Amino acid sequence: MAHSADHAPVPCRFGTSAALTGAIRVPGDKSISHRALMLSALCVGRSRITGLLEGEDVLATAAAMRAMGADVVRDDDGVWTVHGVGVGGLMQPPQALEMGNSGTSTRLLMGLVASHPITAMFTGDASLSRRPMARVTDPLGEMGAQFNASPGGTLPLMVRGISPAVPISYRLPVASAQVKSAILLAALNTPGTTTVIEPVATRDHSEKMLKGFGADLTVETDADGVRHISVTGPCDLKPQNIEVPGDPSSAAFFIVAALIVPGSDLVIENVGMNVTRTGLITVLEQMGGRIERLNERTVGGEPVADLRVRASALHGITVDPAIVPSMVDEFPVFFVAAACASGTTVTSGLDELRVKESDRLATMARGLEAIGVSVKECEDGLVITGSGGVTLRGGGPVATLLDHRIAMSFAIAGLVSQDGVEVDDTAPIATSFPDFLALLESSTGAT
Ligand SMILES: O=C(O)C1=C[C@@H](OP(=O)(O)O)[C@@H](O)[C@H](O)C1
Ligand SMILES: C=C(OP(=O)(O)O)C(=O)O
Fold this sequence. Notes:
The protein is of the alpha+beta class. It is 28% helix and 26% strand. The chain has twelve helices and 22 strands. It has a four-stranded mixed β-sheet. It has a four-stranded mixed β-sheet with strand order 4-5-3-14, covered by helices on one side. The site of phosphoenolpyruvate (PEP) has 9 residues, from helix 3.
């Protein structure tokens, strides 16, 4: 499969835009799309998925599920049909599982392989091959799986699964939905009760979807507010029809664009509003952002709304680190909003940003400097002094380091820049938001 990493860099210059108006839709939620394919592949029978994100990351998951025996097909109307193999039925993939740029595919699939009697080699692009995997191989190793990783515990990495695996009780040392989900997925084919103890709540799509597919899953919150999530296996999953809501992490780029481009009044339809994902909206509202939730409803078991976003005079704040897990992927574009606000914005508790597709604290700090923004990089956050609504200087080129969210964030910065913003490579945007540039052009007349 071709990945953006195989392509020559695609530089692009983003210039000032007209106000963002009208109504747009962003593609399906990436987290839910990965899980929809994986869980459908673990059912005996046919599941249907509509609204699936067709970005490279999710397509890597689809290819992996096919390689392990599931029948995964897209029809001409964009509806995906999966005939699964059943829990316990995953087959030995004939070749390495090529994960491209996708941390979610890699870590969740390692969980699935861990409790099946199969061996799989995981490979990825240069960005993914630098990311830490011990956070999943440690607990999955306690369950009995064996690993042969590259130096530093990274990809390429061989997983030798085991059946029956051993149930564990595991307290997450890092706030990570990927680690939580890897263990819960391994638990599906593990006899007995596996418990994940989650001191800091992270996105809960796995829990919601596992219940929806009929897994024996319970969630208890103890007196200290700590969540104990238990799965008793082996589970029998029932095929489902799944409608994937729009991705709030993709909507984030257009929310910030509409707030900072003067005169904007934009509706973004069908955006997932799960509270474990809406931290960005809360923080932007604290800064004076005008974001209205219209037509609130439920889609595919998740809360959804249409968002009306109007250009707003933002002011800097100190962001409460407790909100970080609910906006972990939104910080790159949030920093662009901070760069346009009046006064100073202070962030902390962002150590996890250093181990994403790039070191997002360093990459954003260097990029913001390159376009004339005053920024200080601290160990676990950035301190940004905003322009107070005056256009940014612009310039570049900004180095995106195979990180889709960096590329999209600086595209948004370009919309309010004097000289435009030069982004060195827009190809990685295809990992999570293939239509981003077309949507930006249609809603702004930019690029
Ligand atoms: O579980 C998921 O779908 C995700 C969890 C988060 O990663 P971590 O678990 O590493 O925080 C997030 O950054 C990623 O984009 C998607
Ligand atoms: C961190 C991200 O994804 P992943 O971990 O799946 O590569 C992201 O999309 O911002």
